[in-house]
Every structure is written in C-alpha cells, then in structure tokens.
Write a structure and sequence with these properties.
CATH architecture of the largest domain: 3-Layer(aba) Sandwich
Helix content: 25-40%
Oligomer: single chain
Number of helices: 9
Order of helices and strands: EEEHEHEHEEHEEEEEEEEEEHEHEHEHH
Mean pLDDT: 91
Number of domains: 2
Shape: globular
Low-confidence stretches: none
Amino acid sequence: MKKRTSILLIYTGGTIGMMQDARSGELKPFNFKALTKQIPELSKFDIDLSSISFEVPLDSSNMHPRVWIKLATIIKDNYLNYDGFVILHGSDTMSYTSSALSFMLENLDKPVILTGSQLPIGIIRTDGKENLITAIEIASAQIKNKPIVSEVCIYFEYKLYRGNRTFKYNSAHFDAFKSPNYPELAEAGVDIQYNTNALLKPSKKKLLVHLNLENDIAVLKLFPGISKKITHSILNTIGIKAVIIETFGAGNATTEEWFITALKDAIAKGIIVYNVTQCAEGKVIQGKYETSSALKRVGVISGLDITFESAIAKLMYVLGKNLSVLQTTKLLQSNLRGEISI
C-alpha cells in the first residue's frame, strides 16, 4: 500500500497570505491552521499537509540572509519527516531566496517549491489559489515513491522554474518571473507536463545544510560616464570581500586605464571581482571583445550566464566557506546547483 505523501508548508509572509477584513477592508495575514477552510480544494489531495508560519509575517522587501538561515534550518529539522516542502514568499525577492536555498541545501533529493502571488488570496481574482494548489501538487508528485522534482524551484502562473535561474521581471502581471537562460521545468495545463531532461537528478548523498553566509558584497553597475571617485569608493570599502560588476553585453566594460587599474588593485588585495552581464539573456564571454579582454587579464571572474540574484546568493555561500582566493574562484566558475551553463 502506497503511503500518503506528506508536505510541509512554510509561510514567511507576502501577498499570498493576506485576507481582506470584511469590515475594515485591511489586508491581514490569515491563519494557516485553517488553510483547508480558506482553500477547500486542498482537502481533495491525498496528502498529509502540515504548516509552519513565521510569527511575524515578513514583507519580502525585508528579506535577509538570517531568514534564509531560518528557512534552511526548518527544512533541515523536518527533512526526514516530509516528502516535500512548499514555501510561501513575497514575490519581490523570491528569486534571491530560491537561489540562496539552492546553494545552502546541498544533496537535495526532495522538492523545495517557492510560490506566492500578485494578489492576496482573499481577493476574488487572486492568482494565489492556483499557485499554491499546483505548487503543493508538484511538491507531492512522485513516480515509484520517488519525487519527480528534487531541487529548489519557483512555481508561478502555470510555470515551474529552477529557482536559481529566475528573476522577477514584471510587477503588474501574473506571469511575474522569467528564466532567460534555462528552460522551464514544468508547465501546468490540463495536466502538469514535466521537462524531465531539464530537471536535476536527485542526490544519493546525505543532505548537507550550509548556514554560513557572507554578505560583505558590493555591486558596481556600469554606465557610460561612471565616476572614478565613486568606483574607487566602492572598491575600497572597508571590509569588502567581493564586488559584482554589472557589465555591458557579453561582459564588456570601459577600457579606461584608471578603471582597469582600480580593478587590478582590488583583486591584488584579495577582493573577488565577479562579472555579471546587465542583459537579461545571454552570458559573459570575457575576451570575446577587446573591451572584456582587459578584465580577464587582471583576474576578473566570469559569471557566464548566471542571473544577478543567483550571483549574489552564490557569492554569499562561497565566501561563507572562508576558502583561499584560488578555491573561491574555482567554485564561482563551477556549476554547483545548475545555476550556470558550462
């Protein structure tokens, strides 16, 4: 006899968990203990559904690495008791959280699905019900008692994405996320169609949970006429461990001598300089053009086709290991959780 699938629902906050007060019209978090009452469709699932709610719901604009640590710890503590996890989260920083968790949860063999909504679940036209119902269905989906999905994902508006490949591109429409450099993992229609070739294979090793994150990171977004004094100020920030430079096109930057020298001096001091393109699609190819050859020559690390959100999370994770510059560089250039194409 097949055992019932068990799913742990973790509510962090965000639009999806709001109900409109009938008298005041205010949006307030609803009680997830009464989840099946709010969404009766959930009772039709042949699953055991449990929930954990943050005592104080968190707007995702206030997301912080300490919250990622809290989420990773909840999953670690409950990993053997559940077949899958669904995290309800505000959409604004969902790509950051899904990226961070993908690095923090090494050797996953169960699904961790993040979802949310653009409209509160208490609004008639909400997208929250469909997102939540299908996220739970995906998290509980199995073949021969093995999860179909075994990685950190985002489910939103009929699409399942690898979490560390996404970014939020739209604040006005229900289809809020894109995965520009990696295909969708599944699409929900009459049935849920899984792109099995794109899914990560489940690990056969024991789950490792990494809780050390280093956030002494700066971002230098390039633009024509970028200031020398501002650039120097950022690169010489006390305590800085790494800088993401958001470059043009395929990883290109100004070749002015002062700029290249500033990067070279920062790298000589042990600061990691990580090249991430400003383009939504495509990748960094250092050396393709003259305007990126100098970056490669002075030791700037190519981010290839990593998203900005994933680059932030990956840097925090790798820097948290306190490795040598050489080891850090090697990890940043390696495909750890499907976040880059090599």
